[in-house]
Amino acid sequence: MKYLFLCLIILFVVSCGDDFKKVETLGEFRILSVVTTTPEVAPGTGVSLQLFVSDVKGGGRPISGTTIACIDPGIAFGAKVNCDHDPSASPGTYDIHTANDAGLGLGNLFTGLAPDVTNVTVPAGIFLGRSTTEQFNGVSYIVIFNFTVDGREVSAFKRIIATNREILKLNNNPTGSTISQNGIAPGPVLNKDDELQVTTDAPEVYDFINTEGVNETKTETFQVAWFVTQGKFSKPKSNVDEIVEYQGDTPTVPSLVVSIVRDDRGGVEIVTESFP
Predict the structure, then answer these.
(1) Model confidence pLDDT, tens digit, residues 226-237
(2) Which pLDDT band holds residue 19 (cuts at 50, 70, 90)?
């Protein structure tokens, strides 16, 4: 069974223990991605966001959290991930039920797209005081999701990029991503040392104004993050087309492989395969 979602995410999780060492092995509640079809927008545009989560060990349960949206305080330059600086920050809530929500209760996996939707509007005045270069390259509006689950704080934030690029030149999520198993379409069984690989459509070419004010043409680069509900991989991250080996016993219960394809300017596509 396969699910395909588009998303944009930057993930951070406050936790400790063995699960931290094997980051690709899913168990405790985690936010794997924030889903949106619009990684770049014009100022004043509304955007819808959903979480792609995993809670394998939770056994199916309700989980409630909060959201808050604001202009990026400068996270890339070391600012804390919060909205304390923005008096116009917009708070909200986010509710999940990992057993009842469609897409989450598959077998014992409790991993998938949560149906709750967060709607935000990027402020029309987000460019106020920004240089011509910033307006073209993009100004970030962030949405932060916060949960406390089993005594752990689990948080994620997503950047929505506001830009004055032409509509047809806005960044799109990667498309056409698929998982292969030993060079062919995935079969019903996942065995130790099986070789998994993600391929995707060609990257986008885009314009960027550098620090000297010169317009450059660049090509996106992709990276893949791997997750699995049973076993682990030879590497948790890879390049597109790079082979990753499954290191675990053949699953006797449903097991899910998740690959998250990210471009280097915020676009994301998620592909999943279930075994057996």
Answers:
(1) 999 999 999 999
(2) very low
Reduced to 3 states, what is the DSSP secondary structure of residue 77? helix
Confidence of residue 178 (pLDDT cuts 50, 70, 90): very high
Task: Give the DSSP H or E segment for 53.
Answer: strand 46-54
CB 244 within 8 A of CB 179: no
Per-residue tokens: 275: 């075994």
Name the token pair of 147.
């949960």
Nearest to 233 by CA among 241, 219, 243, 223: 243
Count of structural domains within the chain: 1
The answer to whether residues 238 and 223 touch, using CB atoms and an 8 Å cutoff, is yes
Q: Is 34 left (phi over 0), alpha (psi -120 to 50) or beta?
A: beta
Give the range of the structural domain holding residue 134, as residue numbers without chain letter.
Answer: 2-275
- What torsion do the CA atoms of 134, 118, 109, 60 make, to the nearest 10 degrees? 140
Longest CA span, the chain: 58
> Contact, 84 vs 91, CB < 8 A?
no
Q: What is the pTM of this model?
A: 0.89
- Cα dihedral value 75, 68, 261, 77, nearest 10: 0
Other beta carbons less than 10 A from residue 52's beta carbon: 26
Alpha-carbon distance of 141 to 270, in angstroms, equals 22
Rounded distance, CA 28 to CA 175, Å? 29
pLDDT in tens, 146-170: 999 999 999 999 999 999 999 999 9
C-alpha to C-alpha distance for 139 and 80, rounded to whole angstroms:
17
Contact between 165 and 137 under an 8 Å Cβ cutoff? The reply is: no
Q: Label residue 106 by pLDDT band (50, 70, 90).
A: low
